[in-house]
Every structure is written in structure tokens, then in C-alpha cells.
Design goal:
The complex is a heterodimer of chains A (about 220) and B (about 260). Chain A is an alpha/beta fold and about 220 residues long. Helix content of chain A is about 45%, strand content about 15%. Chain A has one domain: von Willebrand factor, type A domain (Rossmann fold). A six-stranded mixed β-sheet of chain A has the order 3-2-1-4-5-6, with helices on both faces. In chain A, α2 packs antiparallel against α3. The longest helix of chain A has 23 residues. Chain A is globular and about 50 Å long. In chain B, a hairpin with a 2-residue loop joins β1 and β2. The longest helix of chain B is centred in the C-terminal third of the chain and has 61 residues. The two termini of chain B are about 75 Å apart. The chains are: A alpha/beta (about 220), B mainly alpha (about 260). Chains A and B meet through α2 and α3 of A and α2, β1 and α5 of B.
Chain lengths: ~220, ~260
């Protein structure tokens, strides 16, 4: 009788142990990874500002952790395209591999900044739509879109961009929003431009923010 | 002196005082050991990310941290078994009662595991330094020119970390001795604490009982003070019914008269 009980206990121990260990791992894991999609405006004279963008990219690379996703894309005539992606990476779990990926990422950006040619038009909406698609696919926890641009959208004839943005819980940060010559003549133009983007983003359930002082960027990247 | 103390202090008190001393000394040494274990943990937690990944989580904690903690706990457990096999401590009577040949086997096995774990830790400590240098170099290249340590000085920190990684597991072996004293002394200390808490509880209840008694008596006195005047007025006013006869007097005044 005792032996039978012992055998039964031994047989039950393995499934019990497995259940206990499996129970320790969470059923719904909390996604703590970050996803950053950065849009670089390459229209007209704004290409001169790309050195600043390079510093921001390097800073972001230094702050991102293994498991995070980072992509940089250019804004040109038609930006709703994978072809505009300059560099993308989901950093490996192993820190050494993640560091290697970051070095390769930096090299790609350096090459791009050296060889970039200005584009005739500025399709920011297309770039945002591409970013939303990319980050949704990456399945990251916290999604951020950085727009390095003067926010002046200029579309080629025939391009339809009057589309409602769907970006729930996205943080959209406009960086280095430079004032154009016409903004200096009538500052309302600049304010209206910012307000228009804010309304579009918030209508899509996203959070809008403008950061012109790069020292405040840390809070955007690390939080 | 000891005779004098023996005369002065009852045996129960002497034993309690000895246990308390043991408890605090063992507790102090254990706290030092915990400090050592924490340093050990920090040495191996970072390189563990290379083995088990840096972003995977379990129960809200990084798997790499859990793995590092498990290694340290296994080292402590091996240290306990080694000390037990050497009959320095007596925490597990089964090990102490083993045949000498079996005990010797156990000594060598536990020592072998400890040596392996210590070597693994030294390796991890080396990897930690390599990773730290890689991180520093990457940061310097990204953030333009944070100064990094010269190559000539690097071997000092690498060697120090490797040495600590190798020695700390063996140092943790000796935790078994204070742990045994701590467990033995904690029985008496727990008893003393239980007695003290029961005494405190009894004092509290006695105080509450006394307070309740006195509050009751005080409330009776206050009631007497308040009721005295209405009763006195009631007694003084002659009460008559509608026909002019004396009405019914309150019972307590009738009783007083009869008395």
C-alpha cells in the first residue's frame, strides 16, 4: 500500500513541478521594449540640419537597450514606402550583439548623411503612416515617432495624404522645428502649422510634443 | 568573577544573555556575508545577460538577475554541505552520521562543484570587464569622445574582478558557521521576544481593564452629579391631582419614608 502511494507520489511530482515552474512565468508578459521611428526631412535647405539629426540618432542609439527597436527613414516626395528606410534594427538580447548592431546602424547613418541629396517635395504624412505600420509590426511596448523637420508639408500633385492618422498611445515628437523665412514675416504661419499637426496627431489618439531644445530629448527617449 | 556572576544571575538569565550575544555576533557576520554576496551578484549579473538574454523577464525580474542569484545560492548551499561533511557544522544530522568514506566522497564532490562555480564566476567577471569596455567604447563613439581608460591600466581592474569572482564563492562557504550559531541562538531570542510581546500585551490589557473600570466609576459619578438636581426639585415640589388631593409620589421617595 505504501509502495503504491510512493509510486503515485513520484509520478505526480514531475507534472506538479512542471506546472509550478510554468506558473512562475507570466501568462501575459509585460512588454517593456521601446520602439523609435525617426523621420528625417531631406527637403531643400533642411538637409543642412542633418548633422544635428545625426547627433540625435547617436544619442538615441546610446540610450536604447537590448530588445528595443529603432528605425530611421527619410522624408522625400513619396515617403509611404519601405525604400525610404535608411537603417532599422531590433537590438539583440545579448548586449555584445546589440552593441555591434548599434555600430552598424551608426555607419549606415553616417554614409547617408554624407551622400544625401535634397528632395523636391516633403511627404510627412506618408512617413508617419509608414512609421505607424512599422512600429505596429515590431510589436513594441512603447512607441515613439520622432519627426526631424520644419513640419512644412509639400506634396506632389496627385498624391493623396488627407488621411486620418490612427496612432493610439503613440508619442509623436517634433524635433528641431525651424522657423522658415515666411514664419518670420507672419509667425501665425508657424503656430498654425504646429497646431495643425497637433490636432491631426491627437485626433488619432496620439500624444504630441515639440522639442526644440535637444537637452530635453533625454526625457523623451528614456521615459 | 564568573562565580560571582553565577551566584548573582539565575541560570535561565545567563543562558539567555549568552544566546543574545551569539545572536548578535552571528547576525553581524551574516550581514557581512550578505554584503559579499551582493558584490558577487553585481559581478556576475551583467555578463549573465550574454548567456540568458538581457530583456527576458520572469515574475517582473530580469532572467539574468535571477540566474545570477541562483548561482550564488547554489554556492551557499554547496558551502553548507561542505562544512557539514567536514563536521564543522551540525545542521543536517544525516550528513554528519554518514560513513567516513561517503563523507569524504561528499567533501570532494561539493568542493569540485564549488571550484567549478568559482571558475565560472571568474570567467564571468572577465566577461563583465570586456563588456564594460565595449560599452564605454561604443558610448564614446556615439556621444563623441568620453574618455576611456588606457589599455595599460585595464588589466588591474580585470585581474581584481576575476580574483574577487574566484575567492568570494569560497568565502561564502564559511557562512555556514555563523548561520548555525544564528539559527541556534534565534530559538532563544524568539522565545525572549515572544515572552516580551506577551508581557507587553498583558500590560496593555491590564491598562485597558483599569481604564474601563475607572471610566465606568467616573461616568456613574457624573450621572449622580447631573441627576441630583432634578431629583431634589422633584422631591421639593408637592404634586397634586386634578381634585386637589396629593398625587402619587415616586416610588423611591415612598420607600425612603417607609424606611
Amino acid at each position: 500500500m505504501n509502495n503504491a502511494m510512493n509510486n503515485l507520489m513520484k509520478k505526480m511530482m514531475l507534472p506538479l513541478t512542471i506546472t509550478l515552474i510554468a506558473g512562475c512565468s507570466q501568462d501575459v508578459p509585460i512588454n517593456t521594449t521601446k520602439g523609435v521611428y525617426m523621420l528625417l526631412d531631406t527637403s531643400g535647405t533642411y538637409t543642412e540640419e542633418l548633422v544635428k539629426a545625426q547627433n540625435i540618432i547617436n544619442y538615441t542609439l546610446a540610450k536604447l537597450n537590448p530588445g528595443d527597436t529603432f528605425a530611421v527613414a527619410r522624408v522625400d516626395t513619396a515617403s509611404f514606402s519601405e525604400k525610404d528606410l535608411i537603417a532599422k534594427a531590433t537590438f539583440d538580447d545579448k548586449p555584445s550583439t546589440a552593441n555591434r548592431q548599434k555600430r552598424q546602424f551608426k555607419e549606415k547613418i553616417d554614409t547617408f548623411v554624407k551622400t544625401v541629396k535634397p528632395s523636391s517635395f516633403t511627404d510627412i504624412t506618408g512617413g508617419i503612416l509608414q512609421g505607424v505600420e512599422f512600429l505596429n509590426e515590431a510589436k513594441v511596448g512603447k512607441k515613439t515617432i520622432l519627426i526631424f523637420s520644419d513640419l512644412k508639408e509639400e506634396l506632389k500633385k496627385g498624391y493623396v495624404r488627407d488621411i486620418a492618422l490612427q496612432m493610439p498611445d503613440y508619442n509623436v515628437v517634433a524635433l528641431n522645428v525651424t522657423k522658415l523665412r515666411s514664419d518670420n514675416v507672419d509667425p501665425r504661419e508657424y503656430m498654425d502649422r504646429l497646431q495643425m499637426w497637433e490636432q491631426r496627431v491627437e485626433a488619432g489618439e496620439g500624444h504630441w510634443r515639440v522639442v526644440n531644445d535637444m537637452e530635453r530629448l533625454e526625457a523623451v527617449i528614456t521615459n | 568573577m564568573s562565580k560571582f556572576l553565577a551566584k548573582k544571575m539565575p541560570p535561565k538569565k545567563t543562558l539567555s544573555s549568552s544566546s543574545l550575544t551569539q545572536f548578535f555576533i552571528a547576525g553581524f557576520v551574516l550581514a557581512i556575508a550578505v554584503g559579499g554576496a551582493m558584490i558577487n551578484f553585481n559581478l556576475i549579473a551583467r555578463p549573465m545577460q550574454e548567456m540568458v538574454g538581457g530583456s527576458s523577464m520572469m515574475m517582473g525580474y530580469r532572467v539574468a538577475n535571477i540566474a545570477a542569484l541562483v548561482i550564488i545560492l547554489v554556492e551557499v548551499a554547496m558551502g553548507l554541505f561542505l562544512m557539514e561533511s567536514l563536521r564543522i557544522t551540525r545542521l543536517f544530522p544525516v550528513i554528519g552520521a554518514m560513513k567516513d568514506t561517503m563523507r569524504m566522497k561528499m567533501i570532494w564532490i561539493t568542493f569540485g562543484i564549488l571550484l567549478t562555480l568559482a571558475s565560472v564566476e571568474a570567467g564571468l567577471a572577465y566577461m563583465r570587464e570586456v563588456l564594460a569596455q565595449d560599452d564605454a567604447a561604443l558610448r564614446a563613439s556615439l556621444l563623441n569622445g568620453a574618455a576611456t581608460m588606457g589599455v595599460s591600466e585595464r588589466w588591474i581592474t580585470t585581474a581584481a574582478q576575476m580574483g574577487m569572482g574566484f575567492i568570494l564563492p569560497f568565502a561564502l562557504v564559511f557562512v555556514a558557521i555563523p548561520l548555525e550559531s544564528f539559527i541556534q541562538a534565534s530559538r532563544t531570542v524568539l522565545g525572549i521576544l515572544a515572552v516580551a510581546s506577551l508581557r507587553a500585551l498583558s500590560f496593555l490589557f491590564t491598562m485597558l481593564a483599569n481604564m474601563s473600570g475607572y471610566i465606568g466609576r467616573m461616568l456613574t459619578s457624573i450621572y449622580d452629579l447631573l441627576i441630583f438636581l432634578p431629583l431634589w426639585i422633584e422631591q421639593k415640589i408637592p404634586q397634586k391631582d386634578s381634585k386637589g388631593k396629593k398625587a402619587f409620589q415616586p416610588l423611591h421617595t415612598q420607600n425612603v419614608k417607609e424606611a
